[in-house]
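hiii, so i know i said id send this last week but things got crazy w the move. better late than never?? heres the sequnce for the chain we talked about at the cafe, plus the structure i predicted for it. fair warning i was half asleep when i ran it
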Amino acid sequence: MAHEPTPPQPEQQQDMPGVTGEMDPRPDHGEDSYVGHGRLAGKRTIITGADSGIGRAVALAFAREGADVLISYLNEDEDARETARLVEEAGQKAVLVPGDVSDPAHCRKIVEEAVSAFGGLDVLVSNAAHQASFGAFEDITEEEWRTTFATNVDAFFYLVKAALPHMKEGASIIATTSINADQPSPMLLPYATTKGTIRDFVAGLGQMLAERRIRVNAVAPGPVWTPLIPSTMPPEKVKSFGKNTPIGRAGQPKELAPPYVMLASDESSYIIGATIPVTGGRPFI
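okay and structure toks below
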């Protein structure tokens, strides 16, 4: 762990939603380190926001554990193709589905494509997210508020609604929430509010689906070095990103993948409605 990059990072900025290739340092998704052990053998999975960052790391880990992966992403074709290459390199099937998850029809399409390609669905990872930074409440437009909720919260609802008819006992639904669900950053107010909503949705939905033996859980990342950071934060914030953790740095995407693997696997049969923090030491209640 001592060799992971630590702040300061070079000041940098990208247009939203950001791409991996322009980041300095380049994020580590576990390309050279993640070793699978067949924990997800035969699982048929969907991961939204799987083109880069946490989503790519989870897709890589799932594939090396034996899962086929549908890679849902907005429009970052080059990044998505690289994720698909990693999945296929692991000997698993990769399906690319670009489009906007804030559209309920597109969410239905994602599920239909997975079921058609894989013959069923065992794991849904709702990971795609939108965020933006604001210095004052007055800067938050109605459109921005609605876009953030539509991408982060509404899409999760749409995906679950479409996926459930295809999920059987032992299936798993996993959401990505955030340290912001517990410690909301005022600079990220719309985003933080959605992440708190997701945590509550997971807790309630987990109870609702428990009798059907379909598990619902979440992972709460702390600061993680992904394209979302240079594309949504000012350069001076990017430079110090991750410094406010006890470990003194941002997490690498590869460090987030193991909890998703555990929650997707049959090993987590008694974990329901939980949120697992991966925060570099920042407390999460």
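btw Residues 37-277 form a domain with the Rossmann fold fold (CATH 3.40.50.720). thought thatd interest u
miss u guys!!
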